[in-house]
Amino acid sequence: MNSDPLSHLPHGISFRFVDRVLEMTPGKRVVALKNVTVGDPYLQGHFPGNPLMPGVLLVEAMAQTAGLLLSEGSSAVLAQIRDARFRRPVVPGDQVRIEAERLGGLGGLHRFAVKASVDDAPVAEVEIVLAETSQATTNVF
Amino acid sequence: MNDIIQRVRQLLATRLKLAKAVDEISDDAPLFAPTGLGLDSIDALELVLGLEKEFGVVVEDRAVAIRVLTSIRTIAEFIQSQGKG
Questions:
Q1: Annotated catalytic, A11?
Q2: Tens digits of per-residue pLDDT, A59-71?
Q3: Residues of B contacting chain A (CB within 8 angstroms)
């Protein structure tokens, strides 16, 4: 891992939903931040005059955070989203703290439990499976 | 052994949310073939994590998984061979 774990994400800057990594135990657990601001383009339409972070994009942020735990140089796609719950709205000005824990893996598949909170209040949780698309870099199993 | 088999059935039913289908297959039915439960690789991962949590047995890699996750009976035999259950 070099000093900026975010540089390992394959996503272009326009589709990056993680702003900063706070803690990282490679392969096990990561904590990251997503700052939600009025300038975020998706808030223009969701909804006009009533900006609200879309739940699916919150899940995307959580999946990207989980992806930070994969080995460097590997890319992955979503294989499963399970038991997603959204507990309260996320709005501009919120700083979302996302904590992802890797529960285990098999082949190129990895399962994660991910929680999101704002000011210590839970806003969302989900279980995610990521499938590595570059098997050559798989070194976990 | 019968006790382990019942617990494996319970694991399949709850972790994979397949209670009805699990009731209808035999202990020797192929879990991954369409004629059995028709499970896929994501189900296999879920089962591996479930086996570790419920029985304390570790399925180390894909090769072991392919061998162990053949049927309800092979899973139960693996648990027993590891001295668990």
A1: no
A2: 999 999 999 999 8
A3: 41-42, 44-46, 48-49, 52, 59-62, 65
